[in-house]
Design goal:
Chains A, B: It holds the Pfam family HMGL-like. Chains A, B: It catalyses: (3S)-3-hydroxy-3-methylglutaryl-CoA = acetoacetate + acetyl-CoA. Chains A, B: Belongs to the HMG-CoA lyase family. Chains A, B: Its EC number is 4.1.3.4. Two copies of one chain form a homodimer. Chain A is of the alpha/beta class and 269 residues long. The first copy, chain A, has a single domain, classed as Aldolase class I (TIM Barrel). Chain A is 46% helix and 14% strand. Chain A contains ten helices and seven strands. In chain A, strands 1, 2, 3, 4, 5, 6 and 7 form a seven-stranded mixed sheet that branches. Chains A and B meet through helix 7, helix 8 and helix 10 of A and helix 7, helix 8 and helix 10 of B.
Amino acid sequence: MASTAEICESLLTSPPQSQSTIAYNYLVPNIKGLESLVKIMDATGVSADSPGSETKPATTTEVSLFAAATESFSKANTNCTIAESLERIKPIVAVAKTKNIRVRGYVSVALGCPYEGPEVSPSKVADITATLLEMGADEVSVADTTGMGTAPRTMELLQALKAAGIANTDLALHFHDTYGQALVNTIVGLEHGVRIFDSSVGGLGGCPYSKGATGNVSTEDLVHTIHSLGMHTGVSLEEMSRIGSWISEELGRVNDSRAGKATLGRLAE
Amino acid sequence: MASTAEICESLLTSPPQSQSTIAYNYLVPNIKGLESLVKIMDATGVSADSPGSETKPATTTEVSLFAAATESFSKANTNCTIAESLERIKPIVAVAKTKNIRVRGYVSVALGCPYEGPEVSPSKVADITATLLEMGADEVSVADTTGMGTAPRTMELLQALKAAGIANTDLALHFHDTYGQALVNTIVGLEHGVRIFDSSVGGLGGCPYSKGATGNVSTEDLVHTIHSLGMHTGVSLEEMSRIGSWISEELGRVNDSRAGKATLGRLAE
């Protein structure tokens, strides 16, 4: 397998063909990670926002920075307190901004922590989210990493975020379907006015710190649910279902999308 | 394996120990099926409503009668029109009533038909439901056999049932999780005031007429969702999760309950 730098350089200089703008997201664990990315961008002469051309699609370069909503998870995941992790994130955001790189913050375990249980303080999540936005993050994804989130607690959290002055347009929601609540919680988010939701095709992924955990909610289930409410995504459920089936087979894992499997079953009739 | 008559006789005369009343439900495809049941009840001297004793729990005997919401499904499933199937059901209900047997009607494919698609007429479902109740059914389970139901169409159906004068207390809802919408639709039902929901432990079952279909929504997911809303079921999610895992293993199938697997994962930590 190629090194991260090689993959990064290849994506920056030869992005895959696409009809619309693609945002390439790089997980940046620390300032060194960002410095490596910037070095490659400088060496290849590719800017963070490439307008594209006839042969190349427009691309946006984005970095992901992670904070956690509980001290126990922060300690286990990043070996520092929440305050320390925010101090580490601050200069990374500042450097990214100078290079016009989009910044996406994450608040992990916002609706349940494997160490501290489901009762995570909504105002603590709101504080961390606000801090990330004030530092210059373009968007913060509030993540139910363990899937412990419920409809009433999702609503409570969204109300706390609103009370802290955070706009829905600066928010993304990231649900795991571990307890089967991801779509229920998505609808709570939609009703509250959030319009950005994370998902993964075929439900790939998962959380290594949460036993028995399934992965992120599948893109197919999310798209089917949003369409069922009469809203638009611009995503073809049929094509996404085919991709989910294909990648699951490639990876030798079970396709974890109900809507994906049902859509393919219907198409096969 | 024992014959249906032997199983039926065994359950009537030696019901398993339980702390609370158990309703034994028998699927009765036609009048002969009911006559066989009545014959066994007469021979064993067991009445439909057994008050129980110190050594035996109270039991209720119940029969299930199926009608479909579309002509195509009725033809494929029971080889007759909807009107003909209701004519066949009528005398079965009448005989059951004379023996004090509880009658549960079902309206299959109420939110989507494998032959006619998702657009099933809500007023047609309401008509069939009302007819079954007028015949003397104690309860009608309106079933999303294919899992095609969505939140807006579930709400539309419940409004049609209400407009037809059907009380929530006479209704049950039966969702399949084929497209991942069972819990979303359950919440729509709960908000509308329905309090009876069908489910199966570990998500056992399925619909042979709907390709790619998963089974009924799992009891564990349903119980977790209802508890998450602060409502009570009287069911222990932990015990139900253990049962779901056990029976899935016994049957050599995948445990299809997300909340069940996650609960067991949490308990194992």
